Amino acid sequence: MDEAERLRNVSRLWEEHRRAAFPADVRGAEPSGIDLVLLDATVAGCVSGWLDGGGSLDAERGRILRDAVRDLDRVLPEITGDDAPRYFRHLRRLAVLVSAAPPGAAVR
């Protein structure tokens, strides 16, 4: 996937994510000791920063985002309900797409 295509895909997924409501049944939940609200906010901040930077993410946010993907991998098997699994799979997809982008490679 070239970087322009990645930017388009992330932009589309980001808009979908922004329109989705955080699943009420997991608000305050901490499977495996991981706060789901904080995890969502962490990924959202990194994705938003990547988009605002035209597809560029600094090394620290890249590390934070890779850690968030690992956390999502840990909690996804424990998340149940109607909407929560889909919501967090979508969040993971966003995090993976952004974290796989070359560091500092802004789309021009």
Q: Can you put this structure into words, describing what you see?
A:
The chain has helices at 3-19, 36-52, 59-75, 84-99. It has 108 residues and is mainly α.
SSE order and pairing:
Layout: H1 3-19, H2 36-52, H3 59-75, H4 84-99
Keywords:
108 residues; mainly alpha
Oligomeric status:
single chain
Regions with pLDDT < 50 over 5+ consecutive residues? none
Q: What amount of the residues lies in strands?
A: under 5%
Count the E strands.
0
Overall shape: it is globular
Radius of gyration: 14 Å
The residue fraction in helices comes out at 55-70%
**Count, helices:** 4
One letter per element, helices H and strands E, the order comes to HHHH
The helix/strand class is mainly alpha
Q: Largest beta sheet, briefly?
A: none
Give a summary of the structure in a few sentences:
By secondary structure, this protein is mainly alpha-helical. The chain has helices at residues 3-19, 36-52, 59-75, 84-99. It is built from 4 helices and no strands.
